[in-house]
Design goal:
Elements: H1 2-13, E1 21-25, E2 32-37, E3 42-49, H2 53-67, E4 77-83, E5 86-92, H3 101-116, E6 129-131, E7 134-136, H4 144-163, H5 170-180, E8 189-191, E9 200-202, E10 208-210, E11 216-218, H6 221-227, H7 235-244, H8 251-270, H9 274-286
Antiparallel strand pairs: 1-2, 2-3, 3-5, 4-5, 6-7, 8-11, 9-10
Helix pairs in contact: 3-7, 4-5, 4-8, 6-8, 8-9
Bound molecules: adenosine-5'-diphosphate (ADP).
Family: Belongs to the fructosamine kinase family.
Protein name: Fructosamine kinase family protein
GO molecular function: ATP binding; kinase activity
Length: 289
């Protein structure tokens, strides 16, 4: 399989790539990661079961979409497909370094520029993708409140019911979410979609990079809200972001709603205490606080 992947890399890049060494890269939540080292060039390869090829294709197309904004660095996807009952995604290899305050500020500015880049009049994307390994529905929708209520919170609630979670009634929640967002009419921004600290890094040359996206056109605040979950980003990041594209009033209230999506997804992926956390957030939202 590795030689076939090397042949595909050669076809796409035009170099004669031969594998000299292969190293396992840890840190991924979903896939197995490898460094594929040749004579002078290295690639990052993700592997999964053949059935996951759509997930890799969506990731590659998301990276391409982000690249097309020329705003923030993301790994360049090289090729993807199925070989020998495995799906694979090959991308540019990046050397990571320790982030400086300057780099975090720059990441904030560059993410703001990506959010300003435009490119769609509607919310959604050209295809569904995944958030973690959960399907993420990106049906084109005119109205942000409808999109977020139905395709983000509503969809995860349906999955949670199937999983046996005791969560409030689907219709009640979807309607309340719709009402909460009724006055929110953002311009559709290309968002990373899964921007927790594990998906943000800085190269050894000090350049900010964002990885492993769940791209779609949405309210830019979803990315900022998620940076505040699971550890948070340094103040320099928000300074840089607000310099270029200041956050609007009401963000603090919407933040809980936007992050509920990720907590519901964590409940669907991992179960456990995320169910009660989602319930607390839902109660807070349903009681209008
Ligand atoms: P998963 O899809 O399994 O969640 P990630 O995209 O999060 O995998 O990658 C797992 C780890 O591999 C990251 O934490 C990072 O350290 C490393 N990594 C990801 N992309 C690259 C890359 N392009 N070059 C080098 N290392 C990478």
């Amino acid at each position: 399989m590795w030689n076939q992947i090397a042949d595909r890399i050669s076809q796409v890049t035009g170099e004669k790539f031969q594998v000299k060494e292969r190293r396992s890269v840890s840190g991924g939540c979903i896939n197995q990661g490898y460094a594929l080292i040749g004579n002078g060039s290295t690639y990052f390869v993700k592997l999964n079961q053949a059935s996951q090829v759509d997930m890799f294709e969506a990731e590659a197309l998301g990276l391409k979409q982000m690249l097309s904004t020329h705003t923030i660095r993301v790994p360049v996807p090289i090729c993807w497909g199925v070989i020998d009952r495995s799906s694979y995604l090959v991308m540019e290899w990046l050397e990571f370094g320790s982030p400086t305050t300057r780099a975090w500020e720059q990441m904030g500015r560059q993410l703001a520029a990506m959010h300003q880049a435009g490119g769609s009049a509607k919310f959604g994307w050209e295809r569904n993708n995944t958030i973690g390994s959960t399907p993420q529905i990106n049906t084109w929708t005119e109205n942000w409140a409808d999109f977020f209520a139905e395709h983000r919170i509503g969809y995860q609630l349906q999955l949670a019911k199937r999983r046996g979670g005791s969560l409030p009634d689907y219709f009640q929640v979807v309607e309340v979410v719709r009402e909460h967002l009724a006055d929110r009419t953002p311009k559709p921004s290309l968002v990373h979609g899964d921007l927790w600290s594990g998906n943000a890094a800085v190269t050894s040359a000090g350049e900010p990079v964002i990885l492993d996206p769940a791209t779609y056109y949405g309210d830019r605040e979803v990315d900022i809200a998620m940076t505040e979950l699971f550890g948070g980003f340094p103040a320099a990041f928000y300074r840089g972001y607000n310099e270029v594209f200041p956050l609007e009033e009401g963000y603090q209230q919407r933040k809980t709603l936007y992050n509920l999506y990720h907590i519901l997804n964590h409940f669907n992926l991992f179960g456990g205490g995320y169910g009660s956390q989602a319930n607390r957030m839902l109660q807070q939202i349903l009681s209008g606080k």
